[in-house]
Write a sequence for this structure.
């Protein structure tokens, strides 16, 4: 049986109560388990989130409602603990804010855990999800700033940290810290090593969204350019090539949405009628199909994200219906928002329990989409309506939307 000193002198140190189970992985890769066929799937997801306005809007909306007004605790010591959770001085709310964004975009979150030999504190540093890959032996997390240029485990920019619950001693800055990485991932069948974002089924719709926006921008930029067939008289093949190359360079650049077919023909001889350059215009009538495609992609993204149109501030034919916003927020609160919050609370409670042997109280402060004066306790509404009320009745202490309560308050 290992003594405490034996444990802390090991290369990897297990600070949790249970030993991790060894796992054997057989694949053809040398050092790490790739994420995607080219190992750059997270980079593609990050690009999607930056290029598609509707996709990013849905992510931002979910992020905002899940975080709400932040994280708190009814226990004063825990509340004090949450004021700073890493060396950079971030609060628990600020740290989870970053972690949750990675979770929503990539379906994965990576947190560096830092403690000392005696496990007297626990700090958290979220790591950019595009930078992390699992090692082949599943014992380490390999961190690299640019996986597109990575040369393997011996790359000088590579940093390796043990996967939780193992810890590794680090003497940087003359401070004997013990570091580990916790991997948060969203379950998806057939994906064993990495999580997959919820919206994965709408990846084609995301591409349609940013491509239609790019097409609209190109149409605006090329408003005075027409499509057609250009007939250009030339002297020989050399001049023909020079004309075509010049047109490609100056008029057919990336982002141009007009189509120009160029035909070169031999110039007339001196005894023939002189040739002139001709442009035969063609018209495109595809605006309607593009608009329908864009609208369909938006609907598909909202469904795949399991989210709600009114919470993304998308106006329908009826405009912004406040009652619909309240109803959809209540549905989101009782399902999606609560589930995310419970998962994060459970994760951090488990980490504090395993590493510090400390039980914590943690909760999210939810923030409704409408201002607080739109909500009151049932007994307050009954009092305003001249009905009998009991402010000590637990049922009448429930908080409800004022407009909704005008119809339902008699049921309480």
């Amino acid at each position: 049986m290992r003594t405490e000193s034996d444990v802390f002198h090991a290369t990897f140190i297990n600070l949790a109560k249970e030993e991790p189970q060894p796992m054997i992985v057989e694949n053809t890769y040398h050092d790490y388990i790739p994420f995607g066929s080219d190992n750059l799937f997270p980079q593609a997801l990050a690009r999607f989130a930056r290029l598609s306005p509707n996709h990013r809007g849905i992510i931002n909306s979910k992020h905002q409602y899940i975080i709400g007004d932040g994280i708190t605790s009814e226990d004063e010591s825990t509340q004090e603990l949450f004021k700073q959770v890493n060396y950079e001085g971030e609060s628990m709310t600020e740290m989870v804010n970053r972690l949750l964004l990675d979770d929503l975009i990539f379906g994965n979150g990576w947190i560096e855990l830092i403690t000392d030999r005696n496990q007297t504190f626990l700090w958290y540093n979220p790591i950019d999800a595009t930078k992390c890959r699992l090692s082949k032996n599943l014992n380490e997390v390999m961190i690299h700033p640019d996986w597109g240029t990575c040369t393997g485990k011996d790359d000088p920019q590579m940093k390796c940290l043990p996967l939780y619950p193992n810890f590794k001693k680090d003497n940087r800055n003359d401070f004997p810290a013990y570091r580990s990485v916790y991997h948060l991932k969203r379950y998806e069948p057939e994906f064993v090593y990495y999580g997959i974002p919820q919206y994965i089924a709408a990846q084609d719709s995301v591409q349609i969204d940013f491509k239609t926006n790019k097409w609209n921008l190109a149409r605006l930029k090329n408003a005075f350019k027409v499509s057609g067939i250009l007939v250009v008289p030339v002297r020989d093949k050399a001049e023909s090539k020079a004309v075509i190359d010049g047109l490609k360079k100056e008029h057919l650049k990336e982002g141009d949405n007009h189509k120009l077919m160029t035909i070169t023909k031999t110039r007339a001889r001196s005894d023939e009628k002189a040739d002139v350059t001709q442009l035969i215009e063609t018209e495109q009538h595809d605006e309607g199909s593009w608009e329908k495609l864009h609208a369909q992609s938006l609907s598909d993204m909202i469904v795949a994200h399991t989210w709600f149109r009114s919470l993304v501030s998308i106006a329908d034919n009826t405009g912004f219906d406040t009652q619909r916003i309240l109803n959809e927020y209540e549905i989101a609160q009782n399902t999606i928002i609560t589930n995310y919050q419970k998962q994060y609370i459970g994760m951090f409670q488990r980490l504090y329990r395993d590493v510090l042997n400390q039980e914590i109280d943690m909760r999210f402060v939810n923030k409704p989409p409408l201002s607080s004066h739109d909500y009151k306790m049932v007994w307050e509404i009954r009092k305003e309506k001249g009905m009998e009320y009991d402010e000590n009745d637990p049922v009448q202490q429930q908080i409800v939307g004022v407009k909704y309560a005008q119809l339902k308050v008699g049921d309480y």
In short: Confidence is low (pLDDT under 50) at residues 1-29, 406-410. The chain has eleven helices and 16 strands. The longest helix spans residues 322-356.
